[in-house]
Amino acid sequence: MHYTNTDENGNVINLLIEMEKIIVRKKDKIILNSISFNIKEGENIAIIGPNGSGKSSIIKTIIGDYRPIAGTKGMVFRVLGKNRWNLLDLKKLLGTVSGDLQFEYTRDITVTDVVLSGFFSSIGIYPNLRIKPYMLERTDEIIDFLEIGHLADKNISELSTGEARRVLIGRALVHDPMILVLDEPTNSLDLKSKHKFRETVSKIAAAGKSIILVTHDLEDIVPEIHRVVLLKDGNIFADGDIESILNAEKLTDLFGIPVDVSKDKGYYHAWC
Ligand SMILES: Nc1ncnc2c1ncn2[C@@H]1O[C@H](COP(=O)(O)OP(=O)(O)OP(=O)(O)O)[C@@H](O)[C@H]1O
């Protein structure tokens, strides 16, 4: 187990995720090409890159939906020091919200039940599920924490996209995961909903969860995120502290067109 490690100065660090030489292939195409990076406990990162660069594939690999090619020389893939996980246990550790998860909720189900369904990794609550009192307590706690109590009895189909997205964060948080994984979470939200969503992410980061955020929108990178990974063609193009990565030179190189970057009140903006 390598969950606990030491850095070059002898300080103890806890590694949540260790990836070395990760190769993922789909239909004869290498979609992640020898990816290496670690995420330390308490660290928040953003992953940025052009369409098709492999951002969602990294997330799917981390949450166990995609498997790296086994037997690659020097390959390491560990979550909390373990290289073998029961998928359900892994999903408890990693709360996940993607921009399209809400479209899986096609039938009427209340906000409370959507949050509760996170305990079962299900899309809804069914009679065969054993709901325990602590689950209901935790669901109420999360609804309070996210300030969505006024929505609790509504059906998810009645909510705006922005409201539904915050409910899905609740679903991801019921297990008290160590890491919250957000894949393009502000897709199709209006300005106010994006603002509200970002405040929620900041609050969760301040509560001590690690955030892994995939986005096309630099404004989604809340000030609690200090590290950015740039991806291109299934490779890591750059990885470092936000100041050294989110600048015109790096983003111009990454996207192959002139990009300008500015920073205001802790948030970054890019335009071209
Ligand atoms: N299951 C799959 N089968 C075949 N090809 C796949 C599969 N998953 C991903 N790919 C391919 O891998 C590449 C990376 O896809 P991925 O979705 O990770 O990119 P992305 O950076 O998240 O893109 P976007 O910004 O458009 O969401 C793409 O060329 C995609 O077509």
Q: In a few lines, what is going on in this structure?
A:
This protein has about 270 residues and is an alpha/beta fold. It contains eight helices and twelve strands.
Topology:
Layout: E1 4-6, E2 12-26, E3 29-40, E4 45-48, H1 55-62, E5 76-79, H2 87-93, E6 94-98, H3 111-117, H4 133-145, H5 161-173, E7 179-183, H6 191-206, E8 210-214, E9 227-232, E10 235-241, H7 242-245, H8 248-255, E11 260-264, E12 267-271
Parallel strand pairs: 4-8, 4-9, 6-7, 7-8
Antiparallel strand pairs: 1-2, 2-3, 2-5, 9-10, 11-12
The protein binds adenosine-5'-triphosphate (ATP).
CATH homologous superfamily annotation: P-loop containing nucleotide triphosphate hydrolases
CATH architecture descriptor: 3-Layer(aba) Sandwich
User: Which outline best applies?
Assistant: globular
Instruction: Count helical runs.
Output: 8
Briefly, what CATH class? Alpha Beta
- Average pLDDT across residues? 90
Going by helix content, strand content and strand pairing, the class is alpha/beta
Descriptive notes:
The structure is a single chain. With 272 residues, this protein is α/β, with parallel strands linked by helices. The chain has one domain (44-64, 87-271): P-loop containing nucleotide triphosphate hydrolases (Rossmann fold). The protein contains 8 helices and 12 strands. It has helices at residues 55-62, 87-93, 111-117, 133-145, 161-173, 191-206, 242-245, 248-255; strands at 4-6, 12-26, 29-40, 45-48, 76-79, 94-98, 179-183, 210-214, 227-232, 235-241, 260-264, 267-271. The strands form 3 sheets. A 6-stranded mixed β-sheet has the order 6-7-8-4-9-10, with helices on both faces. Strands 1, 2, 3 and 5 form a 4-stranded antiparallel β-sheet that branches. A two-stranded antiparallel sheet has the order 11-12. β1 (4-6) and β2 form a beta hairpin. The chain binds adenosine-5'-triphosphate. Adenosine-5'-triphosphate binds at residues 26-27, 29, 31, 49, 51-57. InterPro entries: AAA+_ATPase, ABC_transporter-like_ATP-bd, Metal_Ion_Import_ABC, P-loop_NTPase. Residues 17-258 form the ABC transporter domain. Keywords: ATP-binding, Nucleotide-binding, Transport.
